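Ticket #285: bound-state structure for S-adenosylmethionine.
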Amino acid sequence: MSREPRERQPRVGQVKEVTSLANPIVKDIRALAQKKHRDASGTFLAEGLKLVIEALELGWRLKTLVYAKAVRGRPEVEKVAARAVAHGGLVLEASEKVVAAIARRDNPQMVMGVFEQRLTSLAEIRPAKDETWLALDRVRDPGNLGTIVRTADAAGVRGVILVGECTDPFSLETVRATMGSIFVVPLVRTTPEAFVAWQRTSGAALVGTHLEGAIDYRTIAYSDRPVVLLMGNEQAGLPEELAKACDRLARIPQAGRADSLNLAVATGVMVYEARRHLLALGEGS
Ligand code: SAM
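RESOLUTION: The complex was predicted; output attached.
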């Protein structure tokens, strides 16, 4: 009978000490700041002990664990290092200088993980009753995307579909802004054509948001069938071909002089309205 390898304290030799920025492993991790290296390696960097532990618990594959020398010996760090080793990951004990260089900031998190990227394919998605999916047309701003993934998680959105040329969900800035929700919310990447074709057979209502939408977003029946909410690009809004594919084009009323809401804010308003009938304060929330 095969068994999971027993988790044990990492032995000397399984943890590499690194102090130099010239170390090739450190160079590879630092290169993950660039999309082409994330794409080529299929990995990304996430920061923070709590986040790394949660990701491991959710079954994400940790390729490399980096922790600062200053936290060596802390029970939680030892535990996560043992776990990384047991699952075939590499563990680096790094100087503060190396940790700051990897995080590209002062006062970095003391623990970071390089994880394998994970995307869901559109073909696997069959929206079920009471499910809300969120589709984003060419979202460009990493902070917006991270905030949206975090908000989607909080509101119980089933997953986020990235339509067209979107900012990379695995960039450091986006991952930071998700505050760990990147490990919880399934992400899909697709083209506008494939999205429209999928939506036609998905059984879900496609509710687009548009500054010229004729329908007040509060008057839509979100509980009749699964819903896909479609949000437009920050600069251009929804293109004609996507707007045409929508069952409804909703607008959030505005009173002041602002032309529009920020994309992440508009998304927050929409997902909470679409899921209003499903959300309630309960134990632990
Ligand atoms: N100049 C863009 C335009 O003309 O659509 C503004 C885009 S807005 C910053 C980004 C996206 O947020 C929009 O495409 C839409 O999805 C959503 N949005 C922002 N304000 C909205 C509103 N009042 N009603 C409906 N959607 C809104």
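RESOLUTION NOTES: Residues 9-116 form a domain with the 60s Ribosomal Protein L30; Chain: A; fold (CATH 3.30.1330.30).
TICKET STATUS: resolved
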